[in-house]
Design goal:
311 residues; 3 helices; Porin
Amino acid sequence: MKTKTFFTAVIILLISFSTFGQKTYEFLRLDLSPRAGALGGSFVSNNDDPNVIFYNPAGLKLIQDQKISFSYVNHLLDINLASVSYNQDVGDLGRFGAAIEYISYGSFTQADQFGTKTGEFSAGELALLVGYANNFEENFYYGVNLKFINSSIADQSSSALAFDLGLHYSIPSEGLSFGIALLNTGFQLSKYFTAKEDLPVDLAVGISKKMAHIPLTLSVDFHRLNRSDDPYTGRFEAFSVGAEFDLSKALSIRFGYNNEKRKELKVGDFGGLAGFNLGLGLLVSKYHFDYGFSSLGEIGAMHRIGISTSL
């Protein structure tokens, strides 16, 4: 009863906080992890990958050993992203993590008001995370991230401070995991010129299930449940589903579908393969190599690669 009361109170608190709008630092919504990307972004209930720090910090507590991961994303045109994450237990204090995610938008031609070229400028965004996770009781975990965000265009910049809050509950005997996270709630420290912008707050819930008789894990996530600009039922359109099939201890194949991405990338009534994802995971010695492919429909595709290991 104590756990149920606390869990209910925390959910109400998360929903209350999530009334903030969302306008800037949209790169925080992108899936950098090739594994998560291949699963369509269904990662809120994950508990065995260091990249879960970007989706639900509570999942860190179930990770074993000292884990480090690097990911790289080749986006459209000259846009590139990269991330590094690390976590470890610190005695009885709990589990701590740290991560960096960065996006470069490439270089652009700079010109004055008369159209005279005066040089080039670049644009990029960066987030630095410090996370902590521990357990309330058996199979019930919580986590929090402190996040510093910076965005820059030429010689102008803005920055923000944000928090991620998460809960994770698992039922090992059933192969079930549940997650809920409130991501990117916070405030700007400095602004581009005089314009104040809100952060891309995201209230997300997820569930994953390991099948009993086949090496298959299914996951479903709902994101942006805090949106107030859509009808109530419209809040559930931002869902994703993922399937991870372990062909052996060394090889996994992954498939995912992201409904919101497909909706955004449709050209008229035609969406092609927009929103569909696939990927591979390969274990060589103690190194995990991951690849993820995400279709963007008519405009192209994204490729992700990553490597993770235990130290």
